Amino acid sequence: MIRRTLLGCTLVAVVATLGSLYFSEVAGFPPCDLCWYQRVLMYPLVVVLGVAAYEGAAGVWKTGLPLSTLGVLVAAYHTMIQASPDTVTCTVGGGCTATYWEALGVLTIPRISLGAFVLITAGLVLVAYLDRQHNN
Which secondary-structure segment (H or E) carries 115? Predict the structure, then answer.
């Protein structure tokens, strides 16, 4: 169960990483500062979770959970300022309130990032729970 959960988290991180690279390198959307912070938190998860899934290392939650939790916070803030650009201003850098891409009327790049970080965080919380159950 732990290995499959880690594999699922790895796949989410890989898709999020490839998606961010597609949006910036292929579609030509310039990443804002908050996007860069989310990338800094997501990209290492591909390697960290991938190695842990391969090795079956349940203790990876101690490394991955801080990264994914911070990612949830940054992506939630980015989603909030994008949703209400008139009431909240971006104090980090330019372009954070811009909506370059939207699907189904609700999906934007920060919202997809938030979803990815939430999925990874939930998976790592499950791994932490299973790891602690196994060690007790």
Answer: helix 109-135
C-alpha span between 51 and 98 (Å, rounded): 35
Phi, psi of 29, rounded to the nearest 5 degrees: -80, 125
Cβ neighbors of 128 (< 8 A, separation 6 or more) are 61, 62, 65
Per-residue pLDDT tens digits for 62-87: 999 999 999 999 999 988 888 776 66
Spell out the domain ranges in the chain. 2-135
- Cβ-proximal residues to 77 (8 Å cutoff; 6+ apart), any chain: 34
Q: pTM for this structure?
A: 0.86
CATH architecture of 2-135: Up-down Bundle (1.20)
